[in-house]
């Protein structure tokens, strides 16, 4: 599969050389939210106190906390979606297998049900 | 299979490998944030105007940098242990296959119903047809039905080998005189490649593993054909 990386939608961009923000789900949004939170926290602290170095420290803390918060929120939602997806897939598979049989959950009991049917 | 200059994991083909990928993303984000923090601290320490840095103490920061790493480790350990126990679950396999490592090929035995066994040798580079992958293709693939739990019993005939298929999240040592068990389910049909993962002699790099997941009727046709040819 030569060129598979290009075929997947562009080469991944790795922050600090380790975090591929393009291909890791939720990473891009988390980093962008973190950057926004960092700028907002740092600016607000500077406007309140006029302390430059401490504002950068607050900005970093804001970056870490906002990134983590956005990351976990997105990952938990993704995990819930994956669980739902699996339940739906299982349901579709079972519907195909059990349709028309006594195990079909959508079957309503009929008074004249045939006996011995497969 | 892996593509040239690939650094990351291959796409997952089994639920366990999907979980491993998600865990890896989770841990890598934590590593990234810690690295960012350390980089920032290094820059701050190099550019500080403070001169009296080495005879200070602070109980508050000592508490923070003790509790925070402990919390981070717990955040990493909990999903890790969850996946560890998930990987050990064996849920009523539909098929059991024995994979035996030899110098230098794998042999597979399907003995649940009939006595089907075959060897799987690497196709030499000069015998490849266009489109086949160098050092990865074999003359006979281990064919399995898709979305069916499969148990693989791994052992070896001579020296240590290791049966590994990265896209399924499987690696199991093949030890002479010992049966190691692993199980997996393929989420999608396809062909999944792996290579021997324990040094076993001159041709250790030339005994690949190919797993082909096909729909059940195709698997039945394949096994009938293989039994006729045997």
From TrEMBL, chain B:
InterPro entries: CcO_II, CcO_II-like_C, CcO_II_C, Copper_CuA, Cupredoxin, Cyt_c_oxidase_su2, Cyt_c_oxidase_su2_TM_dom, Cyt_c_oxidase_su2_TM_sf. One of its GO terms (molecular function) is copper ion binding. Residues 1-91 form the Cytochrome oxidase subunit II transmembrane region profile domain. The chain crosses the membrane at residues 27-51, 63-85. It holds the Pfam family COX2. The keyword Mitochondrion applies. Its cofactor is Cu cation. Component of the cytochrome c oxidase, the last enzyme in the mitochondrial electron transport chain which drives oxidative phosphorylation. The respiratory chain contains 3 multisubunit complexes succinate dehydrogenase (complex II, CII), ubiquinol-cytochrome c oxidoreductase (cytochrome b-c1 complex, complex III, CIII) and cytochrome c oxidase (complex IV, CIV), that cooperate to transfer electrons derived from NADH and succinate to molecular oxygen, creating an electrochemical gradient over the inner membrane that drives transmembrane transport and the ATP synthase. PANTHER family: CYTOCHROME C OXIDASE SUBUNIT 2, CYTOCHROME C OXIDASE, SUBUNIT II. NCBIfam families: CoxB. This is Cytochrome c oxidase subunit 2. It comes from Cyprinodon variegatus (Sheepshead minnow). The lineage of its organism: Eukaryota, Metazoa, Chordata, Craniata, Vertebrata.
């Amino acid at each position: 599969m030569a060129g598979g990386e290009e075929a997947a939608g562009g080469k991944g961009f790795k922050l600090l050389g380790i975090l591929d923000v393009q291909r890791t789900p939720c990473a891009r949004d988390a980093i962008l939210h973190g950057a926004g939170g960092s700028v907002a926290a740092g600016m607000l602290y500077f406007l309140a106190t006029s302390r430059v170095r401490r504002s950068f420290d607050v900005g970093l803390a804001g970056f870490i906390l906002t990134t983590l918060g956005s990351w976990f929120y997105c990952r938990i939602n993704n995990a819930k979606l994956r669980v739902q997806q699996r339940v739906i897939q299982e349901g579709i598979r079972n519907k195909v297998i059990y349709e028309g049989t006594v195990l079909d959950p959508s079957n309503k009991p009929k008074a004249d049900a045939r006996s011995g049917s497969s | 299979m892996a593509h040239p200059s690939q650094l990351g994991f291959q796409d997952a083909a089994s639920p366990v490998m999907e979980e491993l990928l998600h865990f890896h993303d989770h841990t890598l984000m934590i590593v990234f944030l810690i690295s960012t923090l350390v980089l920032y601290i290094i820059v701050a320490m190099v550019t500080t105007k403070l001169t009296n840095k080495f005879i200070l103490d602070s109980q508050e920061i000592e508490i923070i940098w003790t509790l925070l790493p402990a919390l981070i480790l717990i955040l990493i350990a909990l999903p890790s242990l969850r996946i560890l126990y998930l990987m050990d679950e064996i849920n009523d396999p539909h098929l059991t296959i024995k994979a035996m490592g030899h110098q230098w090929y794998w042999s597979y035995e399907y003995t649940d119903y009939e006595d089907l066994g075959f060897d799987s040798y690497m196709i030499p580079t000069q015998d490849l047809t266009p489109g086949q992958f160098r050092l990865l293709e074999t003359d006979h693939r281990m064919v399995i039905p898709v979305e069916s739990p499969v148990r693989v019993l791994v052992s070896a005939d001579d020296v240590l080998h290791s049966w590994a298929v990265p896209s399924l999240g499987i690696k199991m040592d093949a030890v002479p005189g010992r049966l190691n068990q692993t199980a997996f389910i393929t989420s999608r049909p396809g062909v999944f490649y792996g290579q021997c993962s324990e040094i076993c002699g001159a041709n250790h790099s030339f005994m690949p593993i190919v797993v082909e997941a096909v729909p059940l009727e195709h698997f039945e046709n394949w096994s009938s054909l293989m039994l006729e040819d045997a």
